[in-house]
Design brief:
It is built from 8 helices and 5 strands, in the order H-H-H-H-H-E-H-E-E-H-E-E-H. By secondary structure, the protein is α+β, with helices and mostly antiparallel strands.
């Protein structure tokens, strides 16, 4: 059967800060860093997960064949992937949705997930629509700016955020999250007032047009 160790931190590597936003990014990170155990250091591969699914299929189809005669090998392999990748991703992903919910409640406005082209082109996770203008929001974990490989990315993001403002009228704000009492909270609450001011500015600007 599938070992639960494959989705434990000692197997995955305890990342202090999530470096991904999508399941695809998490899958890539998982296969690059996950190890079977600290002693062997052997990496976990797609072939290894396929093998787990095949072993599960044999176990189920032979041991309880009379009750599950219709079971297929493909279903077992899909289950193995779901258990190892999707379940671990689900454990890390609440960060954005939690902060998103807090922002929506505090600001009292609708906050929408950004379309894929905005995420890729402008580095915007969510947006607020104000008349015919848009405010961009990007949620990052505390300490994000201090990860060495992220420094150059931040400079690039500033440029993409400027392009967003030039095209859609509103600024892009970073929302920094931090874990407090096992819950994600907004680490830079001062940004709330800045967003409120930007909403007010855009409302006035729109009336004058």
């Amino acid at each position: 059967m599938i070992s639960c160790a494959l989705n434990k931190t000692q197997c995955i590597c305890p990342f202090s800060e999530p470096l991904f936003k999508t399941l695809g990014e998490w899958e890539k990170l998982y296969f690059n860093h996950a190890r079977l155990n600290e002693q062997s250091g052997a990496g976990i591969t797609r072939d290894y997960i396929n093998d787990l699914g095949q072993k599960l299929y044999v176990k189920l189809s032979e041991v309880i064949q009379s009750k599950l005669g219709a079971i297929r090998e493909e279903e077992c392999i899909n289950y193995a992937y779901d258990f190892v990748l999707n379940k671990t991703y689900a454990g890390y992903s609440p960060e954005i949705t939690t902060i998103y919910g807090q922002l929506k409640s505090i600001l009292g406005v609708e906050i929408h997930p950004a379309p894929d082209e905005w995420d890729r082109g402008y580095n915007v996770d969510f947006f607020i629509k104000v008349k015919d203008k848009y405010i961009g929001l990007q949620i990052k974990p505390a300490g994000y700016a201090y990860i060495p490989q992220i420094v150059n990315e931040l400079e690039f993001q500033k440029k993409t955020h400027q392009k967003f403002t030039e095209k859609y009228g509103g600024k892009v704000f970073y929302i920094i999250s931090v874990k407090q009492d096992k819950k994600k909270v907004i680490h830079n609450p001062e940004v709330i007032d800045e967003i409120k001011k930007e909403i007010g500015r855009l409302q006035i600007t729109s009336k004058c047009l």
